Amino acid sequence: xxxxxxxxxxxxxxxxxxxxxxxxxxDGRDRVVREGDTVAGELGAAIGRAFRTGLSGSVExxxxxxxLNAHLPQPRLVVIGAVHISQALAPMARIAGYPxxxxxxxxxxxxxxxxxxxxxxxxxxxxxxxxxxxxxYTALAAVTHDPKIDDFALKASLDAGCFYVGALGSRKTHAKxxxxxLALGAGAEDIARIHSPIGVDIGAASPAExxxxxxxxxxxxxxxxxxxxKGEAA
Length: 234
Hints:
Elements: H1 3-14, E1 19-24, E2 30-34, H2 41-53, E3 57-61, E4 64-71, E5 76-80, H3 84-95, E6 100-103, E7 120-121, H4 125-131, E8 138-142, H5 147-160, E9 164-167, H6 171-183, H7 188-191, H8 207-223, H9 227-230
Helix pairs in contact: 3-8
């Protein structure tokens, strides 16, 4: 591999940015395509699929054979709120391949006995996220129902371009939340990205069922990244 190509690829990986190493199997030349770069035609469509699935492999495009080596950061889930939903969501998300962190300044809720083997921060979101910033490969679920805790994290997730942002609450609750986020400087288009009521509509009632609905929505959001922007079909 060309040393410059390797250096570029490693820089993207360190920064938790997705990249695909494209190798022309005919002449051996390779290049790095970053997520968001424009590549036309059949090759561009194949690269788009590699970014969504994370799967590597050979493809035929424009009469040539290419090997696409996908390098995607591991998606992670940050949950704001050490509540019953979080207790069910954390182990399920971990099984699905989404490492979970939980943030809640309420020390009565954020206890290791309630969340064994889960990274837990009994601090305010603004303090934790200053040390561990969000990014486009992070999903954020705000489930405290407390604006003092949720709102900062929601604004931060929109600013960071998180691939999924969800918030617990009714439509009436969310309407008030929208007003607060607008006052914090969030744009209406960004706020529209928030999934609220949170989770896929499966009629969930119990905390465990809501957790299933949330995880399903997170996975759907991750696997459909870029489809609306590119006008592709699922």
